[in-house]
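Hello again, I could really use a second opinion on something today. I've been staring at a protein lately and its backbone has me curious. Can you walk me through what the tokens say about the fold? Take your time with it, there's no hurry, and the full record follows here:
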Amino acid sequence: MTSAPSDKVGKRQHNRALRHKIRQAIHQKADILPLKDEISSTWDMDKDGKRRFDPRHEPKLMRK
């Protein structure tokens, strides 16, 4: 039910942001490094609503 073919671009952006924050924390000599979940969320990506759809089981959703 999503129109995005892949999460590749979103994953690249999120991982790039994570690496950037980690580099900043290391440079500032922080005791604790940031976690992936603190920086970004998988719900922000293009395919966050991905699920299987079978019109036989949910015919109401096929109505116009």
Observations:
- Residues 1-50 form one domain.
- Helices lie at 8-27, 36-39.
